Amino acid sequence: MTTIASGTDTLTRDALAVLQPGFTGTSAPSWLLRRLGEGLASVGLFGRNIATPAQVAALTAQLRAERDDVLVAIDEEGGDVTRLEVRTGSSFPGNHALGAVDDTALTEAVAHELGRRLAACGVNLNWAPSADINSNVDNPVIGVRSFGADTSLVARHTAAYVSGLQSAGVAACTKHFPGHGDTAVDSHHAMPRIDAELPVLESRELVPFRAAIEAGTRAVMSAHILVPALDPVHPATLSRRILTGLLREELGYDGLIVTDGMEMQAISATYGIERGSVLAIAAGADAICVGGGLSDEPTVLRLRDALVAAVRSGDLPEERLADAAARVRALAAWTASTQTTPPSASVNGGAPGGTSGPGSSSAVGSEAGSDASTDVGLVAARRALTVTRGAHFAPVTEAPYVAALTPVANIAVGDETPWGVAAELRRMLPGTETGSFTGERAGAEALAAAGSRRVVAVVRDAHRHTWMAEALDILLTARPDTVVVEMGVPQSPPRGALHIATHGAARVCGLAAAEAIAGA
């Protein structure tokens, strides 16, 4: 039974309850445990907090020893955005790959297995799925995190993902409301703006969120974006018109509203995190996500004190803060009632098996009698491949040179997670060599490094990077037998002797591509 430290007043407890902070280290610091005892109800985990499955389970047990109903949240989308497997790459393809397959039963199965692994580690709130429609092909932050550019496809897969995740006892947090897909700016760096008219928003951006609400999503995350058709002054996270008027009243959503990270520049550089947090709660948000970049006790105390001061000054109604805190505790109670899996499952899920390839049947785990819980990620990655043979096609039978044309990773993905096909190809074709290249000389440098070896050029969103397209021109002109692997959103016509679109850069996507290259 959770007990709150004596001497902590109701207002302070409520102010702590609405915060979702992060921390550093692989065990809980003393300050975090102390604040849990004073009313803090949520904690966010990031890649820096993850080492092994046993360690994560021990960490969450440590938190629950202090507060048994604590919400332990994580940003685990699978695919490119992984925290559980930040050092190895994900065992699950991301949304774009699932959308490419377009089998909602598969999406639900993937989400359930991901949720099962989260629950086994003691995590009970996942800041996923992304319900954004990738309508702007130049979007720098969504891309393969979206199920696709088609409204109905994104809606049905969002609903399937929510159902699958929550069937494992982990609360889904559908994001980024009211839709981050039609932006050309990353809200980690600045304030994006969507100038679509209201009828477009209603028929496009809002449709997947309606589907998520109908599917019972337990949480929704707001976006730090300005949408003048909805509110010409305030970004969605700080907009009462959007969070209360639209999401609560018009769409009828009654669950938890979580903000995106308040230290992101779209908020911190324009409002500051203290004022931004007060405005967000006043607008209708229930939980303040902070900790991706700011992860210390002073940050928690600054936000707690800012909320308490706003109530006492009349800038934030006390009943609004109390309502927000009550919603946090209600979600915590739901997750506590659903967590039945002991913390014993592997974060990495063991070695994948099965023999499925592109075009296999939609029955998950049906190959060679393999176990669906082990194989579902690889099955999905294999089925998501789009493989095109060009005029110069010839099988790759000897160890090639893998030239990774590497863009700067966006902050949501991070640059610490490995990606590509080289590691998997080395196992299949021993002697495979690799190099990473970027910038205007990438093509010439890759060609020189490859020597006489056959080239496998690995790209990520080649349509968004002029230098990358130019590098492919150089490689394909000099080496028409070059294999091209696109691990982002495929836009350009397939190029290369063999062109493979993986629809994401998860580890299993790289494995599936390597199998196709090596003819496995």
Question: Please, could you describe this protein's structure?
Answer:
With about 525 residues, the protein is of the alpha/beta class. The protein contains 18 helices and 14 strands. It has a six-stranded parallel sheet with strand order 2-3-4-5-6-7. A six-stranded mixed sheet has the order 9-14-13-12-10-11, with helices on both faces. Strand 2 (about 40-45), helix 3 and strand 3 form a beta-alpha-beta unit. The termini are far apart.
How would you concisely characterize the structure shown here?
By secondary structure, the protein is α/β, with parallel strands linked by helices. The protein has 18 helices and 14 strands.
Keywords:
about 40% helix, about 10% strand, about 525 residues, alpha/beta
Number of helices: 18
Radius of gyration: 23 Å
Largest sheet: 6 strands, parallel
- The average pLDDT is 90
Distance between the termini: 54 Å
Strand order of the biggest β-sheet = 2-3-4-5-6-7
Strand content: 5-15%
Measured as a percent range, the helix fraction is 25-40%
Please state the structural category.
Answer: alpha/beta
Q: Tell me, what's the shape?
A: globular
By DSSP, the count of extended strands is: 14
The unreliable regions are: 341-373
Lay out the secondary structure.
Blueprint: H1 10-17, E1 19-20, H2 30-38, E2 42-45, H3 53-66, E3 71-74, H4 95-101, H5 104-120, E4 125-126, H6 151-167, E5 171-177, H7 198-203, H8 206-215, E6 219-222, H9 240-250, E7 256-258, H10 265-268, H11 273-283, E8 288-289, H12 297-313, H13 318-338, H14 372-384, E9 386-389, E10 401-405, H15 422-428, E11 433-437, H16 442-450, E12 455-459, H17 466-478, E13 483-486, E14 498-501, H18 507-518
Parallel strand pairs: 1-8, 2-3, 3-4, 4-5, 5-6, 6-7, 10-11, 10-12, 12-13, 13-14
Antiparallel strand pairs: 9-14
Helix pairs in contact: 1-12, 1-13, 4-14, 5-6, 5-14, 6-8, 11-12, 14-18, 15-18, 16-17
